[in-house]
Amino acid sequence: MKKWKRVLLWGVSIVAVLVGGVGVFAATYAPPQRKATELTVDRTPQRIQRGEYLATHVLDCFGCHSARDWTRFGGPLSGTKGAGGGCLEGYGFPGRVCFPNITQDPVTGIGAWSDDEILRAIREGVDRSGRALFPMMPYQAYRDLSDDDAHAVVAYLRSLAPVENTVPKSSISFPASFFIKMAPKPITKPVPAPDPSRIGEYLANLSCKGCHTPLSDKHELILAKRFAGGHKFDGPFGSVMSKNITPHESGLGNKTREEFVSQFRGYADVEKAALPLGNRPGTVMPWLAFSGMTEEDLGRVYDYLRSVPPLASK
């Protein structure tokens, strides 16, 4: 065999080995995670009540994990709460993203999961098997959820009646399927409750920051433009851009605390607020869920947003 042919053969072989090795690595790489413990959450009535408030009105868990009627403003729930929200495909997603059943059904839901496995999914981004969750599940924001509040959410989820409803698994295309494995991060120390003077910041980071902050080319939040809006969302609700909610005139502007709170509370009557869209645009903003936040909490969020640097953003 001529020398150049041997060199070419060796080159092709090396490339094949490298490509194969990268493929195996990408397929077998496990996201950073800690082993779930035997922790059991105490399910007191007070904790369940707090968990219901957080899951329903602050974190809007059921906005994804339930069927929605997108022909009406705000997409009110159209199926059993927590029984799964089906799948989204297209709309710029790298594959099929599905929203699983989080009721207590042991086969199709999370009834067989341990309390710490649920906690790990909410705040650390891995499922019961240790697989990375697609970051549309906002676990990177929920890392800031205090231990007490995270336990309250688990206690409430445990109170949901089991509903048998199988939702397909998410199927993410390569290379996104590999890169999302880098997003989970284990929590290795206690997460304390926020200081009473910082509850507005705590709530805003949990509920507002993830949507009202623009993304980089790597789909990471640009924290230097925190709360400046410009995050585009495409889905069955249409195509919308999140609003600037900094104190700049292009954001909150001169809106008063009372106006801010009343804007949210105005959606509390779902039947009146969730009108048929017809030819009007829809919204992904969870007005219907957030309308159930207390006036005190909404006011705290407003006060905190007033304190962040004003940023110009259309």
Span from first to last CA? 66 Å
* Helix residue percentage: 25-40%
Number of helical segments with 4 or more residues = 11
**Overall pLDDT, averaged?**
90
- Strand content is 5-15%
Structural class, from helix and strand content?
mainly alpha
What value does the Rg take, in angstroms?
A: 22 Å
**Could you tell me the number of beta strands?**
5
Overall 3D geometry?
Answer: globular
Residue runs with pLDDT of under 50 for 5 or more positions: 15-27
Written as H for each helix and E for each strand, in order along the chain, the element string is HHEEHHHEHHEEHHHH
Written overview of the protein:
The chain has a three-stranded antiparallel β-sheet, with no helix packed on it. Strands 4-5 form a two-stranded antiparallel ribbon. Helix content is 35%, strand content 6%. It has helices spanning 3-28, 45-58, 115-124, 139-142, 147-158, 176-179, 199-207, 257-265, 270-273, 287-290, 295-307; strands spanning 86-89, 95-99, 171-172, 232-235, 238-241. With 314 residues, it is mainly α. It contains eleven helices and five strands, in the order H-H-E-E-H-H-H-E-H-H-E-E-H-H-H-H. Strand 1 and strand 2 (95-99) form a beta hairpin.
Task: Write a brief structural summary.
This protein has 314 residues and is mainly α. The protein has eleven helices and five strands, in the order H-H-E-E-H-H-H-E-H-H-E-E-H-H-H-H. Helix 8 (257-265) crosses helix 11 (295-307).
